[in-house]
Fold this sequence. Notes:
Blueprint: H1 3-20, E1 24-31, E2 34-42, E3 55-56, H2 61-74, H3 98-102, H4 125-131, H5 149-163, H6 167-179, E4 196-198, E5 205-207, E6 223-224, H7 226-236, H8 246-253, E7 257-258, E8 266-268, E9 273-277, E10 280-289, E11 292-299, E12 304-310, H9 318-332, E13 354-358, E14 361-368, E15 372-377, E16 384-390, E17 393-396, E18 405-410, E19 416-421, E20 424-427
Antiparallel strand pairs: 1-2, 1-12, 3-6, 4-5, 7-8, 8-9, 9-10, 10-11, 11-12, 13-14, 13-20, 14-15, 15-16, 16-17, 17-18, 18-19, 19-20
Amino acid sequence: MLPSTEFSLLRRLATEQSAARVPSIVAAVVRDGALLWSGERGFVGDTPPDDDTQYRLGSITKTFVAVLVMRLRDEGRLDLNDPLDKHVSGTSFGSSTIAQLLSHTGGLTSESPGSWWERSAGGDWAALAASLAQDAVKNRPGSRFHYSNVGYGVLGELVARHRGMSWLDAARAEILAPLGMSRTSPHPEGRHASGYAVHPYADLLLPEPAPDAGAMAPAGQLWSTVTDLARWTAFVGGDTADVLRPETIAEMRAVATVDDGDSWTAGYGLGLQLVRHQGRRLAGHTGSMPGFLATSMIDPTTGTGALAMANTTSGPALLSLVIDLIATADEQEPKLPSPWRPSEVDRSLLALTGLWHWGPTSYLLRLIPGGMFDLRPVASGRASRFRPVGPDEWLGLDGYYAGETLRIGRTADGTPNHLDLATFIFTRTPYDPAAPIPGGVDEHGWRP
């Protein structure tokens, strides 16, 4: 990035570290899958941290678990509307659905009963399930957002049962290895920052414990580095390689619930936190464990994201820091549109493109990259993209028609003469009497 931009980013980071009295802090900006800038302040031991220094991620761990669950869904092994009892039977909260657990709307208690799990060695699944036998449901499932660390312990067990291995081994095989995230691990390996609490009234440090959380580990166990977390930030923005379909991560970024009522500045998707700030909609996750804070967010519209990690229990406002880093990067060095260039397309689909009409409303159907269709009104109205799922069948990816099927209607000789989209009939001319218009067309046709 330009030296002036890099200085602005470093100044923002340095201000946060100094004002919040953070032992050490690292941050980075990513765009379109690339690490554009990284910075550090403070010390790990006697030297500054770097892009390969591990910090604990806390609840960012949940995003990895959520991706494992969505992979199971994409493979047809589960449905998001399935009750938990279909996959992990015998709990006292088996009516909560998989989607509700992912979005923290399943009604489960926020923390596991007993000693505070973040500072205590965790037991196995049997011990966690036994502790939840009574009074685990605090709200009616689906009624409200209620953040639940327990829910992700449960989802980790769900993954383990389907994969025949721990959630962690599944994450290593299905996510970390394919994405080259070799410095992300359940415990610190190699150079890492130690976790501290900073005394509120003096410049003193207190070491924090970092026990294994056992069955609660899916809620916050992982450690990572700037380099690895930058790759994960890009993943959340859509650079998913072969680990997940881009439309699946887009589904995870869609709003499932709002955290703060009418103001809608914070919400949750399927395993991802959502933030609205000054016209931006960001997706990612924050994290905290005793001795550590972490945040990763990305704006899928611009492809610009940022991350920050610190080894302190409290103090710095990492979410605000990350939002500021994204804004600085986009304001001082806005992303240029990619140059347009022609590409090869399935020529047989050209006959479907062009002008269509839903009643008297004109729509344009265009071929777009990836072998998909884009259907949008000439003026204003509902627009969606569609991907092919079978002969003459296309699945809606976003907007009003997300999840709906677009089917091509043809005459006896194979000529396309109408589109059937969730019972809406689109024709080449308005209310074409030769097409199956619902309710028919007046026999006298158009008139003055």
